[in-house]
Amino acid sequence: MFVYEKKLQYPVRIKNPNPAMAKYIITQYGGPDGELGASLRYLSQRYSMPYPEVKAILTDIGVEELGHLEMIGTIVHQLTRNMTVEQVEKAGFQDYFVDHTAGVYAQAAAGWPYNAASFAVKGDVIADLSEDMGAEQKARVTYDNILRMADDPDVIDAIRFLREREVVHFQRFGEAMGIATSQMDQRNVYAVNPAFDRKK
Amino acid sequence: MQNNDSCTYKEGPLPSCAPLAVPMLAAQQCAEPAYDSGEALAKGTLFPGLDLPFMDYVANGPVERTPETELMAIDFVCQELALYLDTHPDDKDAFKTWKSVNALAKEARKRYVEMCGPVMRTDTAKFDSWVWPEDPWPWNAGGKAGKK
Questions:
Q1: Is residue B23 part of a domain?
Q2: What's the ipTM?
Q3: Chain-wide mean pLDDT for chain B?
């Protein structure tokens, strides 16, 4: 069960519309390394995970990612609120605008809609946690790239926060990997998949 | 492990003979040192050892203090400690810290609700009418709907 908190994790207060920036930041809403995919990845991987600590970290990070999805949605909303059609045209935002007006839609920067193929649930402890560590790195790089291009301090501030969360989550998944592998066969951690093969 | 720069928070225990082809990351050893809540929120982490910014994109001091950011900051410390405790459930000191921070967060939430309105839907029970739908919603900050 989930309970909603009527507040963001970190303040987002963008004063000026800037659809050109919204055009690429939307990718962290519905793109391949975005927050929606992150949340679904972790919250879905939980079910087959045999270790309590790993179930906990997948749940707690998965829920935090939903909070990040809300922050990105807020950034895109504030970058497109009160924009004029002239600003839409000048920013080259017509492709998005014609389909979604000033709504927030889960799509990648290049325009394709959110695709669950952008994340995996392998049902194997080491494979899934490796994917999670890789996913945090890919999201970090996406934020690095956004920082390279963004020129509004209000946007940079929130993106910087979100980027740092990827570093922290990477650390926690790495520790979860250690907790998991230390309970496996120490001569060969690949001897069985503890998420599927029963304990002897 | 040799500790050359006395920055223990940068180091984690690895076995002297690490097995091959096993993914491994140095584990954080303890929940100290830690930033204070305002600084932690601004930086995006409670822990100096995990504060690894891109280029010179660093926080310009703590987040501006408002009733809202005070609650955000204390809730953020709770979240950071919770993630740490998930992978360090036996760290009794960190658990003790989490308990005291959690109590502070409860107080901060109470103050915020009285001043600004419900955070959780259940907070609406403290009001005389169904104020839950009232603006601003979290994405309205700074806009017309967010005037308060």
A1: no
A2: 0.97
A3: 90
